[in-house]
Design a protein that fits this description.
Elements (H helix, E strand, L loop, with lengths): L9 H13 L3 H6 L7 E2 L2 E2 L7 E6 L2 E7 L5 H12 L8 E5 L3 E4 L30 E4 L12 E4 L20 E7 L1 H7 L4 E4 L2 E5 L5 E6 L2
Antiparallel strand pairs: 1-2, 3-4, 3-12, 4-9, 5-6, 6-8, 7-8, 7-9, 10-11
Length: 216
């Protein structure tokens, strides 16, 4: 059974969300001091169409449509990781029923994968909302510290949305949504979780991203 996060738990969940990441990678936090944007030949990379990503996991396959119009730099960053094969073999390392599932940075042994790209500018002010089935970038307490980690919203998480261009109000940048596979994230949300290596909400049975690929 999915335990829905009650309203009076939201603030605690929100705070723990970025505190977890801040302890993962000091280098990533340092890089966030000077956020960069993906470029091609010295110019901002623009995407002419919305890429579709196929996410094959040990729990099933999901199709993710990215929004290059609303979040061009975030999409370019994510696609670059996908094309590099960075996500293949990683796990969904944080699962919180009634909230979200998070992945994109940890190996099956809960060690952090190295060779991340520089942090990117937060595009949460693009009007996209953290609704059920959307994908957004995970980050530390610094609004502009997102790198490779992402999360899929299991429900409408309005409190993660952008409200102002301040540290407290930046929110979490949504850059796409599932077009197929809501049942897969619901299955992932059912796995038993516990503590591992000082981290909480870790699936006791590894949920692996076997492969990600750009199909459109």
């Amino acid at each position: 059974m999915i335990n829905v996060i009650k309203p009076n738990q939201w603030l605690i969940t929100f705070v723990s969300f970025f505190i977890f990441l801040s302890g993962c990678n000091a280098q990533e936090t340092k890089a966030a001091e000077k956020p960069t944007e993906p470029t091609t030949s010295g110019e901002e990379k623009k995407m002419s169409a919305n890429p579709v990503i196929k996410i094959e996991t040990s729990k099933g396959t999901m199709m993710l449509e990215l929004n290059a119009e609303k979040a061009p730099n975030t999409v370019a960053n994510f696609v670059a990781y996908v094309e590099d094969g960075f996500y293949d073999g990683l796990i969904f390392h944080r699962v919180m029923p009634g909230f979200m599932v998070q992945g994109g940075g940890m190996n099956p042994d809960m060690s952090e994968k190295a060779d991340k790209k520089p942090s990117i500018k937060n595009e949460a002010n693009n009007g996209l909302k953290n609704d059920r089935g959307t994908v957004a970038m995970a980050r530390t307490g610094d609004p502009h510290s997102a790198s490779s980690q992402f999360f899929l919203n299991l429900k409408d998480n309005d409190f993660l949305n952008h409200t102002s261009e301040s540290q407290a109000g930046w929110g979490y940048a949504v850059f796409g949504k599932l077009t197929d596979g809501l049942d897969v994230i619901d299955e992932i949300a059912k796995v038993k979780t516990g503590n591992h290596g000082g981290h909480g909400d870790v699936p006791l049975e590894a949920v692996t991203i076997t492969k990600m690929s750009v199909v459109k």
